[in-house]
Specification:
The structure holds two protein chains of two kinds.
Chain A (H helix, E strand, L loop, with lengths): L1 H13 L3 H25 L7 H6 L8 H35 L11 H15 L5 H25 L5 H25 L4 H8 L8 H20 L1 H7 L3 H6 L4 H23 L5 H13 L3 H26 L7 H19 L6
Helix pairs in contact in A: 2-4, 2-14, 4-9, 4-12, 4-13, 4-14, 5-6, 5-7, 5-12, 6-7, 6-12, 9-12, 9-14, 10-14, 13-14, 14-15
Chain B lengths: L1 H31 L7 H10 L3 H30 L12 H15 L8 H20 L7 H26 L3 H9 L7 H20 L1 H7 L3 H6 L4 H23 L5 H13 L3 H25 L8 H18 L3
Classes of the chains: A mainly alpha, B mainly alpha.
Chain lengths: ~350, ~325
């Protein structure tokens, strides 16, 4: 508990200077978000001159440029924003529940659980409404993966590193099953393989609507749990002493995290490490207070995923790199760096 | 004292014979079964003439499976000894991913690369990845077991992302890519046998003869110095041996995961920690495991094939979890 006490004191000391700094961070990130959105909307559109550019806003939707911007680029950018926010918030929740700042949907098996169920659903249930099926099965799988790690973390005797390793083992297991299933039906393979690398291309307005009505409220609900997570961070004994219903809060938070991760896996495939990196960066600004941490993380996550997606599009233009690969490539060094920094901790 | 040793020796003999018998049995079965059934007469006919599906496809595949299994299991046994870490295994400390990345680059960049150099390239890649992992895990003059494995797995998944990137961008078709990623023995030929055989034939006896030194390393830093062993040099040489065994296995079959973790554990459970017994038995049971996994992958759902690496991971990952959670 020494660490959380120290963190609390740290927060107190910085509290005076926090608001203005925090405001600056919020504004800066919002500006970045707008800029990145603008770039991703108007980047590399053939024949788009300034004159055309104004026409885009006239409400004329016949031209190819307008179609590209409003029906291809905009949904994609919005989806990236929503998913980034959702994944970052899920990361915060998972880190809060497991009291382990190395937790992330990708690392602890939630993503892989969701993928497994989606593939199972697609292979064995014959339905016309595939997107609903994907949504439901991704959610179920995320809940299963999260549930396993939740049960593991309840044992309570793990160091963070051990818990993450256990989660990785769960990931391996689900991942192998998924690949095995996929190889049985080679016909649909290449589509699903691409989906499994985590991608945003082909986003449409339906996806955005699902994200808007499903994920955004979940992020807000997650935010409502923030003060409870603050109490939980003090340790089970203290939280119990303060009259918190620990098990209930944990389960609710896990449920929210599963909704968030399951939804984003259903919409864009498993995208890893956003939920790991973002809360850490946000914590540098907000300190350990979840009431500030969750909204800032959501904003930063939106930024990060949008920029990653943009990078994925630009890197090997015109070929596209799935955004999940970009986040994995930046996320793993980040993770290793974090792990190395945990010097005092026994592993 | 003497009687304990005799019992152990007898037990070793029994296990060795049992393992050998099983290996022969499954080898025969795996030559017999597959997408195309071969009757017994045809089998003998092909054996005599040296032509046909059995001699051209199934036998080299079987031999590759055996050699890969031996290499991975012995590499696991040695590295668990050197690092004194029960969770260490070649694939868990990033060796396979390192070798795999270099091979993927070579195969994509220079398609007609001379085959015998592939194991060398894999050796280089595996050594680099292994060095990076040890560097990352090293902390305050020591390497904590869980930290080593976590660094390894994460470095591995970073490299894996790079491989996926390359494959998504360049690979002609997704199925090929997936099979390469998951470790398969599909369509291995005599060429592959030739690629891995020298490494196995040199490496496994070497591991066996170094079992005495390896046992001494178990004693702890003080005793090792007292025995006049140049501990760090010996460790480095043994690690090079591990990298060579794992690298050559990756070069022919991709990542067949968890063999290097499970088999040494199983063997030590059966025979005890004495490495003179454990290393040969690991080789035998490693071969057995991969042969069974490969055959099962072919037989479960013909004509589709499940890569052997997937089956070993489905068995291995829960065991790894058990190791982490239940054993302290």
């Amino acid at each position: 508990m020494a660490t959380s006490d120290a963190a609390g004191m740290n927060g107190q000391r910085e509290r005076r200077s926090v608001p203005s700094f925090l405001l600056l961070a919020f504004c800066g990130l919002s500006a970045l978000l707008l800029a990145a959105t603008a770039v991703s909307l108007f980047w590399r559109i053939k024949g788009l001159t300034f004159g055309h550019w104004l026409e885009l806003f006239d409400g004329k939707t016949e031209s190819l440029a307008a179609y590209t911007v409003w029906d291809v680029r905009l949904p994609r950018a919005l989806l990236a924003l929503l998913l980034g926010a959702a994944l970052a918030a899920a990361g915060c929740l998972l880190q809060g529940i497991t009291r382990n700042d190395l937790a992330d949907p990708e690392v602890i098996g939630v993503n892989q659980g969701a993928s497994l169920f989606v593939v199972l659903g697609l292979l064995f249930v014959d339905t016309k409404d595939a997107s609903l099926l994907i949504l439901l099965s991704a959610f179920g799988g995320a809940l299963l993966g999260g549930g396993v790690v939740y049960l593991l973390s309840l044992q309570g005797r793990y160091t963070p590193v051990r818990l993450v390793l256990a989660g990785l083992a769960v990931s391996f297991f689900f991942g192998s099953l998924t690949t095995g299933l996929l190889l049985m039906r080679e016909a649909t393979l290449s589509d699903i393989l691409y989906w499994m690398a985590g991608k945003l291309s082909g986003a449409n307005w339906t996806d955005v609507r699902i994200g808007m009505y499903g994920l955004f409220p979940a992020v807000l609900l997650g935010w409502l749990l923030a003060s409870q997570l603050n109490v939980l961070a003090l340790g089970d004994e203290v939280a119990d002493g303060l009259g918190q219903r620990i098990v209930f809060i944990r389960r609710i938070a896990l449920f929210m995290a599963s909704v968030l991760v399951g939804g984003s896996v259903a919409l864009a495939g498993p995208i890893g490490f956003v939920g790991l990196m973002v809360p850490h960066m946000a914590r540098l600004v907000t300190g350990p207070d979840y009431r500030l941490l969750i909204p800032l993380s959501a904003l930063l996550g939106a930024d990060l995923l949008l920029l990653s997606d943009l990078a994925g599009q630009m890197l090997f233009y015109p070929a596209e790199t799935p955004v999940g690969i970009i986040t994995a490539l930046t996320g793993t060094p980040f993770f290793l760096f974090l792990m190395r920094r945990k010097k005092g901790e026994r592993v | 004292m003497r009687s304990v040793r005799q019992i152990r020796r007898r037990r070793f003999l029994i296990l060795f014979l049992a393992g050998f018998g099983l290996l022969l049995l499954f080898a025969a079965l795996s030559l017999r079964f597959g997408a195309v059934s071969v009757s017994l007469e045809q089998w003998f006919e092909q054996w005599r003439t040296g032509e046909g599906i059995v001699m051209e496809y199934r036998l080299p595949r079987l031999l590759t499976a055996m050699l890969v299994g031996m290499n991975m299991a012995v590499a696991g046994c040695v590295i668990q000894g050197v690092t004194r870490n029960p969770m260490a295994a070649p694939d868990l400390i990033g060796l396979n991913a390192g070798g795999g990345l270099v091979i993927a680059v070579l195969l994509l960049a220079i398609p007609d690369f001379p085959a015998y150099t592939l194991p060398l390239a894999a050796f280089g890649g595996a050594a680099a990845a292994g060095g990076l992992v040890f560097l990352l895990a090293h902390h305050k003059g020591g390497i904590a077991p869980a930290r080593l494995v976590l660094s390894g797995v994460l470095v591995g998944s970073g490299l894996q992302a790079l491989i996926t990137l390359l494959l998504v961008k360049y690979a002609p078709n997704a199925a090929q890519a997936l099979v390469f990623l998951k470790g398969s023995l599909y369509a291995r030929t005599w060429l592959h046998v030739g690629m891995i055989a020298p490494w196995s034939l040199a490496g496994i006896p070497l591991a066996f003869f170094s079992s005495r030194v390896l046992s001494m390393l178990q004693l702890g830093e003080e005793s090792v110095k007292g025995l006049g062993l140049r501990a760090n040099l010996v460790r480095l040489l043994l690690l090079a041996l591990v990298v060579a065994l794992a690298g050559s296995a990756v070069a022919v079959a991709g990542t067949i995961g968890f063999v290097g973790l499970i088999v040494p554990h199983l063997v030590k459970y059966l025979i005890g920690p004495d490495l003179r017994f454990a290393i040969p038995l690991s080789a035998l049971f490693g071969a057995l495991l991969v042969v069974i996994a490969d055959m099962a992958g072919r037989v479960i759902l013909p004509p589709a094939e499940i890569p052997a690496g997937i089956l070993t991971a489905v068995i291995g990952a829960p065991y790894f979890l058990y190791l982490l959670v239940l054993r302290r």
